[in-house]
């Protein structure tokens, strides 16, 4: 998930440098959403993995 986020961030940066504002904005938005999903899943897996076994 993090690799997709970084990929879309790179695409957004390249598109911004080349002057494609719409594509850059869309790719940056997708990168933000994917990064937030990654963070939520990471925190959930960290919390669930730290529970003591019963």
Automatic annotation (TrEMBL):
TM stretches of this protein: 29-49
Top-level taxon: Bacteria
Any one Gene Ontology cellular component term annotated for this protein: plasma membrane
Transmembrane found in the keyword field: yes
Entry annotated with the keyword Transmembrane: yes
Keywords from the UniProt entry: Cell membrane, Membrane, Transmembrane, Transmembrane helix
Xref: NCBIfam families: PRK13682.1-1, PRK13682.1-3, PRK13682.1-4
UniProt-recorded name of the protein: DUF1328 domain-containing protein
